[in-house]
TrEMBL record, chain A:
Oligomeric form and interacting partners: Component of the translation initiation factor 2B (eIF2B) complex which is a heterodecamer of two sets of five different subunits: alpha, beta, gamma, delta and epsilon. Subunits alpha, beta and delta comprise a regulatory subcomplex and subunits epsilon and gamma comprise a catalytic subcomplex. Within the complex, the hexameric regulatory complex resides at the center, with the two heterodimeric catalytic subcomplexes bound on opposite sides.
GO terms assigned for molecular function: guanyl-nucleotide exchange factor activity; translation initiation factor activity
PANTHER family assigned: TRANSLATION INITIATION FACTOR EIF-2B (PTHR10233), TRANSLATION INITIATION FACTOR EIF-2B SUBUNIT DELTA (PTHR10233:SF14)
Name of the coding gene: EIF2B4
Basic residues bias spans: 61-72
Region (Disordered): 1-176
GO cellular component, one term: cytosol
Keywords: Cytoplasm, Initiation factor, Protein biosynthesis
Low complexity composition bias: residue spans: 28-50, 75-90
Keyword field contains Cytoplasm: yes
A matching Pfam family: IF-2B
Official protein name in the record: Translation initiation factor eIF2B subunit delta
Organism: Gallus gallus (Chicken)
UniProtKB/TrEMBL annotation, chain B:
Domain Nucleotidyl transferase: from-to ranges: 5-137
Protein name per its UniProtKB record: Translation initiation factor eIF2B subunit gamma
Residue ranges crossing the lipid bilayer per the database entry: none
Annotated EIF2B subunit epsilon/gamma LbH domain residues: 345-433
Lineage: Eukaryota, Metazoa, Chordata, Craniata, Vertebrata
InterPro entries with a match to the protein in the record: eIF2B_gamma (IPR051960), LbH_EIF2B3/5 (IPR056764), NTP_transferase_dom (IPR005835), Nucleotide-diphossugar_trans (IPR029044)
Length: 550, 445
């Protein structure tokens, strides 16, 4: 489902402003100059190498709609709408993309040639008239058929309506039986067992999965696992038991296992490596997803890998192709994770001054690395306050690593932050992902720290590599999150397990959230491998990244 | 492939010679199935498709198992006395991946994934199964009330989670004190030592352990030598042998010893979190400055079963106990065969208890009551016989009016009318005269 998000996420801001994404539109930023009136029924089509896959799909849909409409309107003897004839008059309505050349008019639908010699204004007037005519017809037709469902935006023509359909990823639709049935069918086809949910969930989060650590997925699999590669089974177990956690660690482990998978893979006869390998990876990815929902970093890495595999030229032999893939994975690891960590650490510890008091939360590999590097490579003296929270208590590991390096540390629980914040000079946080509207998705409790820090006017710095940037937009922590095993909240003290019998109490629900979303106005600076950027520049980075990749 | 399964069926059953003198141990009937069927059934249920069975030649000829798995029999000749480790060394060329070793006398309904998951998750060297051993309830038949000497106890030390195996020693190897190395306590300050555990002889071993066995010919038995060696090796560092290498005078001998150290067989990439050790925030212990798992390369884990059936048919008492537990196990397995075989001709169905197993073609006369017993196939039991808590093997004839309690009657025995047998073990082909009363007397051929 990670793959599904990309086209949907890209479309969102454009949808909100009601403009059709023509070729000239930047995918993420809202389209300026496209008011409610500017809803062209025809796409602006460009011939050229920059036509991306999404654009092509969009075009195809719109062409189909056009054809259907034409067939319906033949009886009403209206002029068929002209396709994007004069691209030029349409251009001012849409943000001109700096890289795209001026559009050459193309009329693929009905093959009509643009009438030559008309001036721009006349063409524009003609098209407007046609649009009005066909809108009137459409409304008349709807009134005839007696459809009560009026379109939400009456100005939107049918060519745009179907593409508004957004598909939600499965993992936020747990309370929708149709989606779950689809998932069960898909898993059955891939021969991956379905993991059952555990325990009663809090109503607000009933759309998310909640699994128990005591019921691993391997219970339903045969012991020498044949369908799923043993390395992937081991990785899945390590994810679900919490032995590998932390977004960087999970991604690195995933890529290493994929390297091994590729090593052990052999193309069956009559198949192409580029297509077959992607198909072979899918059950493994589903299995890992069932063990523990994929993190954003893992999702991005998988997207990258799939793209690399499908772009392999056919001329390569299998051995060369496999070596090339391993090389690209190594490159990705080195550039996006290892070197990025170095770069971030370097720019971050420049922000650490003498006699600083730095507050960190939980265990973030980047933040730990930054602090250790700052301690060893500069001679500034600073001390660290480690804030921790139940049930994971990851701060203990941070404490161990920092103290081992010789950094002076204080350890408090999260309920004490308002007591320690007056003496803190800056807050350094790690992130699980950075969302497209600038929100920071991180371990639960981070937004609380950012909020209280804002109240005390303490600057909040977030360290995050660019490969964790995600095109999703989230403004709250409820829509998409992860529910951990509720039994982790049971505490053993003096031989008694507090909350041990929670399942028997019908009115008691336990909630163990893993992530939360910090709004961008609480974060002062994001330190990435591209430099130090404000939170609101995240969409720009995403756009630049997309252009690079295309 | 992930695992290869190996079943050790070459053992002689040295602790129950009364029974095994006539029937080899893997073929001893338990619940009317040969003993070897149980571990094979466990493997089949778990999903294995191929099993290597190490056994003697004559056993394979007598074996008739209906199993869908592919059994690869490896023969060991009679006159060679091979320990379990020797057998593993014998087949080392067949072993290409990690290996799951089972003993043929294990009857259990454990969820195998629990043992194997420990092996997989922690990338362990060894993962084994143990059960809390119940106290023996009754005196075994044939042992005239004399107390058997207490079997040498095992001392097992596990850590706080109950999964990591820290210490293993048998009472026989200790003089008067239990010696625990300081390095163990430094790394794991809390250790639980248990004595009431029974080893199920089910081991998951990494491939490099088999390679190590091949080089190291001094180890003959898995349970008594290899496993304690591995458990000890968890806490001894390989560097201590490096110093021996530098010392040129002692040179060669120590070099040989160093090359036999298991660390030299572990491939480079064995550490648990090798790709991401600095990144993952998991640690198996708290309170000290060390890295996860103290960066130990050898790790041993144990799964301790609390409930469920797990018994090894080692001695006569355990054999009888196993027979008592097996009907419940067979019911839970949901096999197609009912406990009472279809071809058995029983006149009074009501007199047969619900957990008794009757074999095929057995004839049972009128007014014969059978409770908690297992009767083999092709037996003839005449009228008015009372059988309670007995194990009767194949082709046994029991004449009218007999009363049998708590006894084991081997193949082809004939018991004449009116015999009253209590707590006896009657060997094969024996014939008891009429109206004799036998009490707690062992009878051999």
């Amino acid at each position: 489902m990670a793959e599904r998000e990309a086209p949907g996420g890209e479309r969102e801001p454009c949808r909100a402003s009601g403009a059709a994404p023509g070729r000239g539109v930047s995918h993420v930023a809202p389209v300026p100059g496209a008011g409610p009136g500017a809803a062209p029924s025809v796409p602006v089509v460009v011939q050229g190498p920059e036509l991306s896959r999404e654009e092509k799909l969009q075009l195809r849909k719109e062409k189909k709609q056009q054809k259907k409409k034409k067939r319906n309107e033949k009886g009403t003897a209206a002029e068929p709408p002209e396709p994007g004839t004069a691209a030029d008059p349409a251009q001012p309505r849409v943000t001109p993309h700096p890289a795209s050349p001026p559009a050459s008019a193309n009329a693929p639908n009905d093959g009509e040639k643009p009438p030559g010699g008309k001036s721009k204004a006349e063409l524009r007037a003609e098209r407007r008239a046609k649009q009005e005519a066909e809108r009137a017809q459409k409304q008349a037709k709807k009134a005839e058929l007696g459809q009560g469902a009026a379109p939400a935006k009456p100005r939107l023509t049918p060519t745009e309506a179907p593409s508004v359909v957004k598909r939600l990823p499965e993992h936020v639709q747990v309370d929708d039986p149709a989606a779950q049935r689809k998932l069960a069918k898909k898993l059955e086809r891939q021969q991956v067992p379905l993991r059952q949910d555990y325990g009663t969930k809090v109503n607000l989060f009933s759309h998310l999965h909640q699994y128990s650590r005591k019921k691993p997925l391997t219970q339903q699999m045969s012991i020498p696992s044949t369908v799923i590669h043993p390395a992937v089974v081991r990785l899945g177990l390590q994810y679900s038991q919490g032995i590998i956690n932390g977004s960087n660690a999970r991604c690195i482990a995933l890529l290493e296992v994929f390297k091994q998978l590729i090593r052990d893979y052999s193309t069956p006869p009559n198949e192409e490596l580029s297509r077959d390998l992607v198909a072979k990876l899918k059950p493994h990815i589903s299995f890992l997803n069932q063990c523990r929902p994929l993190s954003v970093s893992m999702g991005n890495a998988i997207k990258f890998l799939k793209k690399e595999i499908s772009c392999l030229p056919d001329t390569l032999r299998e051995e060369e192709a496999k070596e090339k893939l391993q090389g690209t994975i190594d490159n990705y690891l080195r550039e996006k994770i290892v070197l990025a960590a170095e770069a971030i650490s370097k720019s971050a510890f420049e922000k650490i001054n003498d006699n600083d008091v730095i507050l960190v939360y939980g265990c973030s590999s980047l933040v730990n690395r930054t602090l250790c590097d700052a301690h060893t490579q500069t001679d500034r003296t600073f001390r660290v306050i480690v804030v921790d929270s139940r049930p994971r208590l990851e701060g203990r590991e941070t404490l161990r690593r920092l103290v081992r390096h010789g950094i002076h540390c204080t350890y408090v629980m999260i309920n004490a932050i308002s007591y320690v914040l007056p003496e803190v000079s800056k807050v350094l946080l790690g992130a699980h992902a950075l969302l497209a509207n600038g929100s920071v998705m991180s371990r639960v409790g981070t937004s609380q720290i950012a909020l209280v820090s804002k109240a005390y006017n303490v600057p909040v710095l977030v360290c995050c590599e660019t490969y964790k940037f995600c095109e999703r937009v989230q403004t709250d922590s409820f829509v998409s999150n992860e529910l951990d095993d509720p039994d982790d909240l049971i505490v053993q003290r003096k031989g008694q397990a507090q909350l041990g019998g929670w399942a028997e109490n019908k009115s008691l629900r336990l909630l163990n959230l893993v992530y939360d979303v910090t709004p961008p106005d609480l974060v002062d600076l994001v330190i990435t491998d591209l430099g130090m950027i404000p939170c609101t520049s995240v969409p720009v980075v995403l756009r630049v990244k997309n252009v690079d990749q295309q | 492939m992930e695992f290869q399964a190996v079943v050790m069926a070459a053992g002689g059953g040295s602790r129950m010679t009364d029974l095994t003198s006539s029937i080899p141990k893997p073929l001893l009937p338990v619940g009317n199935r040969p003993l070897l069927w149980y571990p094979l059934n466990l493997l089949e249920r778990a999903g294995f498709e191929e099993v290597i069975v190490i056994t003697r030649k004559e056993i394979q000829k007598m074996l008739s198992l209906d199993t869908k798995m592919k059994l690869d029999f490896v023969y060991i000749s009679d006159n060679v006395d091979m320990g379990t480790a020797d057998s593993l060394r014998h087949i080392h060329q067949k072993i290409k991946t990690d290996v799951l070793v089972l003993s043929c006398d294990l009857i259990t309904d454990v969820d195998l994934y629990k043992v194997v998951d420990l092996f997989r998750t922690h990338d362990a060297t060894l993962s084994m199964l143990m059960k809390k051993a119940p106290e023996p309830t009754e005196v075994a038949p044939g042992q005239k009330g004399k107390k058997k000497p207490v079997e040498q106890r095992d001392f097992i030390g596990v850590d706080d989670t109950g999964k990591r195996l820290l210490f293993m020693a048998n009472e026989a190897d200790l003089d008067e004190e239990l010696v625990i190395k300081r390095s163990i306590l430094q790394k794991h300050p809390r250790m639980h030592i248990r004595t009431g555990l029974m080893d199920a002889h089910l081991y998951c071993l990494k491939k490099y352990v088999v390679d190590f066995l091949v080089e190291n010919r001094t180890i003959t038995s898995l349970r008594s030598e290899l496993i304690p060696h591995l458990v000890r090796k968890q806490f001894s560092s390989p560097t201590s042998l490096q110093q021996g290498l530098d010392n040129k005078e002692e040179g060669r001998k120590k070099k040989e010893q160093a090359s036999l150290d298991i660390y030299s067989f572990i491939k480079e990439d064995n550490s648990l979190l090798k790709p991401a050790p600095d990144n993952s925030c998991w640690n198996d212990h708290r309170g000290d400055m060390n890295e996860t798992l103290h960066e130990g390369k050898v790790r041993c884990y144990v799964h301790i079963m609390k409930e469920g059936l797990c018994c090894r048919v080692n001695t006569l008492a355990l054999y009888i106990e196993a027979n008592r537990q097996v009907p419940k196990l067979l019911l839970n397995l949901g096999l197609e065969e009912p406990l009472v075989h279809g071809t058995a001709q029983i006149t009074d169905r009501g007199m047969v208890g619900s957990d008794s197993i009757i074999g095929s073609s057995t004839q049972i006369g009128e007014k014969t009551s059978i409770k908690h017993s297992i009767i083999g196939s092709a037996c003839t039991i005449k009228d008015k016989v009372k059988i309670t808590n007995c194990i009767i093997m194949n082709s046994v004839t029991i004449e009218e009016g007999c009363c049998l309690q708590g006894s084991v009657i081997c193949n082809n025995a004939v018991i004449e009318k009116g015999a009253d047998i209590k707590d006896c073990l009657i060997g094969s082909d024996q014939r008891l005269e009429t109206k004799e009363q036998f009490l707690i007397k062992p009878l051999l051929e």
